[in-house]
Design a protein that fits this description.
The chain has 258 residues and is an alpha/beta fold. It contains 10 helices and 10 strands. The radius of gyration is 18 Å and the shape is globular.
């Protein structure tokens, strides 16, 4: 498999607080790496640092062989097309005064994908269909949708630029179990169809396992265990991983029904 993302000894600091402390891992094209840990362990800071949304204090992030922190101009814009984020709170990431269709069209226009607004609207309609929403809803506002529907909108917007990597930061944690399963099923289908790589961030090991090929367990800014999903969950080596497993709910039934 082709290595798409390489994280080497990355450190993220906020003043005297070290949120991420020497984290290293790689992610192949088309693969899902789950990053799991409790709130405050640094996993969201790491996700944002990979995209250049947080400054790294040490280490390097390589995307397709290029160091992200050194990208400028056209190269930086191209990286931002290829690496996108799906946020935990889709409502907070959508402008309440803008229709959801306009939110997607704006992304396309900024990156000059589509000759005009009509072409961008057509692309937005296709994206809506792809995530299981009616194109007739493009002129609605964010408050008119449920939490699960808003997350589908967030996914559609992230896919608009046809990225190679999606960093999904707790994308289902605010949803009930049945809707979580629907979103996981959707993400898996989109991955198969588009060859996407995912860094799937979460605190619920059952959800992360259902989504991931490999799992990295993060605790107090460091990765304490990493390996194949089944290996980590069925034969955990670290005490903290064992603690996470002891709190795992059963999501399998919901996934079967999704």
């Amino acid at each position: 498999m082709n290595e798409l993302l390489t994280v080497e000894n990355v450190v993220v600091q906020y003043g005297e607080l070290t949120a991420v402390n020497g984290v290293s891992f790689s992610l192949n094209a088309g693969e899902t790496l789950g990053l799991v840990g409790e709130s405050g362990c640094g996993k969201s800071s790491l996700g944002r640092a990979i995209l250049g949304l947080e400054k790294i204090s040490g280490g390097t992030v390589l995307f397709a062989g290029q160091e992200v922190s050194r990208l400028k101009g056209r190269a930086l814009k191209n990286f931002r097309r290829q690496a996108q984020m799906v946020f935990q709170d889709p409502f907070g990431s959508l402008n309440p005064r803008m229709t959801v269709g306009s939110a997607i069209e704006e992304v396309l226009l900024v990156h000059k994908i589509g000759a005009n607004r009509a072409a961008c609207y057509k692309k937005a309609a296709a994206l809506f269909q792809d995530v299981g929403l009616s194109p007739d809803w493009l002129r609605r506002y964010p408050h008119e949708f449920s939490g699960g529907q808003r997350q589908r909108i967030g996914i559609a917007r992230a896919l608009a630029l046809e990225p190679k990597l999606l960093i999904a930061d707790e994308p289902v944690s605010a949803l009930d179990v049945s809707v979580q399963a629907e979103i996981i099923t959707l993400l898996k289908r989109l991955q198969q169809e588009r060859g996407l790589a995912y860094l799937f961030i979460g605190h619920d090991l059952a959800v992360v396992r259902a989504m991931s090929d490999r799992i990295a367990v993060m605790y107090k800014g460091k990765i304490v265990e990493i390996g194949d999903s089944d290996q980590v969950c069925e034969n955990p080596q670290d005490t903290y991983t064992k603690t996470l497993l002891s709190a795992v709910p059963d999501i399998d039934a919901a996934l079967k029904d999704a």
